[in-house]
Amino acid sequence: MMQIVDRSKEEAIAPIWRMPFRPFFWGAAAWSLLALILWQAQLSGWVAPAFSDWVRGGITWHAHEMLFAFAATVVVGFLGTAIQTWTGVPSPKGWPLIGLVGLWLAARLGYLFAAVPLWLPLSAEAIFFLTAALLFGRRILLVKQWRNLFVLPAMLAFAALALCHWLLPAYQARVALLALLLVVAIILVVGGRVIPFFTARRLQLPQRDKWALLEIGGHVLMVVLLLAVALNLPQTLWAWLALALGVLQLVRMLRWHPTRIWVEPLLWSLHISYWLLVLGFFIAALAWSGLAPAWHSAALHAFAVGGIGGLILAMISRVSLGHTGRQLQAPGLMPLAFAALALSALARIFWAPAPAGFVAAVAGWVLGYGLFLVYYTPVLFRARVDGQGG
Fold first, then answer.
1. Which of 83, 120, 159, 367 has the smallest count of CB within 10 Å of its CB?
2. What does DSSP assign to residue 1?
3. Nearest to 180 by CA among 335, 290, 75
4. Where, by residue number, does the polypeptide cross the bilayer (predicted)?
5. Is residue 155 domain-shared with residue 221, that is, in the same domain?
6. Residue 316 sits in a domain of what CATH number?
7. Per-residue model confidence as pLDDT tens digits over 293-351
8. The model's pTM
9. Among 298, 337, 302, 300, CA closest to 320
């Protein structure tokens, strides 16, 4: 089902409000810089003690903003844009999109300032994800595209987890882990579709047939892991599931021509991030098995910084070019940005117990996403170069 777009009406909309990827990619990237710098400043004692009296800081805020304000928000921007390609039904734009961004921003400011009653940002964030579920789910159901129906429960889960993260202090760590693994699950689904496709297309190679054991088996195991964490089943079970997922994803990505990716930064950045995601599964297996419990934080940040942060940077860089009619070539110093994210992940995994490791990890993130903002702010705020809509 394809709806005809009124070009005159679309051209009356400022470019930033023409597709969901535009404001959410830019906003999530910019907010991640502010949130990380603020967190590091508090962690290192670089700000006055009175600062914490008016800022709702702490580890809960840090985890919440990186999971929901950054990662889940990029998911909203990506899926909200992809739905138009998948269904043929135009994505939200104009005032509906402005309203969605307004809810997101209200939650960010509300969580940041301690003087704001907590129920206000909680309500804004829950409505944000529920509205996204309504807007996206309606389009998928309209064309009966059941393959992509995972979008609906994902948005509903983000809404529920965002609320629980603040309202259930005794379960905050487990809720944060569930949110992290939910983003990982979405990456396994979407990344498994686009990374081999992008790779084969760029290298002019045939895309290999998918193995059901790797594809369906991996998704089933990921769902089981989410359930095991949600139900607080023994961590030895988590460890075996993580080990199995690591092996399956390792075999999966070895089939994506990994030795030939180095000709294109927009390719190797995706692959390296996926490798770090796989590393996260293996480290998690060690930590959850009890063999190396001190590596629990390293596993979480292998997922969060290396897998999610790195892959998001690579994806939004590529998607922003493709959906604005530009050549798929990393501009300027963006290869340095991709490398900085990988080094940030390695610093956070292997060096972070030392204060310098935390600083190095934050610096790598700031450099990577800072360069993204430098090169992609004009891309996201200006109309497509080919004159088409979107």
1. 120
2. -
3. 75
4. 21-41, 61-83, 95-113, 119-137, 149-168, 174-199, 211-231, 237-254, 266-288, 300-321, 333-351, 357-376
5. no
6. 1.20.210.10
7. 999 999 999 999 999 999 999 999 999 999 999 999 999 999 999 999 999 999 999 99
8. 0.92
9. 337
